[in-house]
Amino acid sequence: MIIYVETNFLMSIAKGQDSQAQELLQNTPSSLRLVVPSICFVESLTTLEQEEKYNLDFLRKLDIQINQAKRDNSDNARLLLSCLEQSRTSFFQRNNEIKERFNVAFNQLAIKSEMITLTTGIFQGTLNRAIFEKHIIDRIILECIIFHAGLHPNENKLFLSNNSKEFGRGEVIEVLRDSGIQYFNKTQNFLGWLQSQLN
Q1: pLDDT digit string, tens, across residues 88-97
Q2: DSSP H helices in the chain
Q3: Using N-to-C axis directions, what is the helix angle for 136-150 and 170-178, rounded to 10°?
Q4: pTM of the entire structure?
Q5: Among 56, 107, 130, 151, which is 20 to 30 Å from 27 by CA?
């Protein structure tokens, strides 16, 4: 059985948003083949880098507020200063946790998964399909999955992505279904389905 995952699978683990995805990655059943478009590894690295820039910008603004509160001798300013300093510490710690979880999940996924390498045929398919006109990376991810699914017509194929805003759209689900791929928008739903198949 093939299960396709994409960038959001990795990022939801890194951000602590999907403990079941983390469990699935750490304890992948032997009956499952994790398959990931190679572009997802690149996208996850650039996403992490972009979020680091946002985080540094936030910390700079927080530092400005901390410095202003330090110059104010009022009771409210002292209380605010304490809260801001604690917030800065907690934010910094959480950011480090995200990076650590990201590194662990990235390495596990790289080791455990089969990567779909981009080819000229996949790029041509991307140009020919009028889906995700404003989201080229999502279009490439979809094309990679469809291409790979075509190479394995007799296997049960599933796609897990909590990015239901894009991959959960009717026309996308139809394209996936036409390629023999069942879509799940939550790890919990997928695991429930998987358990029902094993019983």
Answers
A1: 999 999 999 9
A2: 7-14, 19-26, 38-71, 75-112, 120-128, 136-150, 164-167, 170-178, 187-198
A3: 20
A4: 0.89
A5: 151
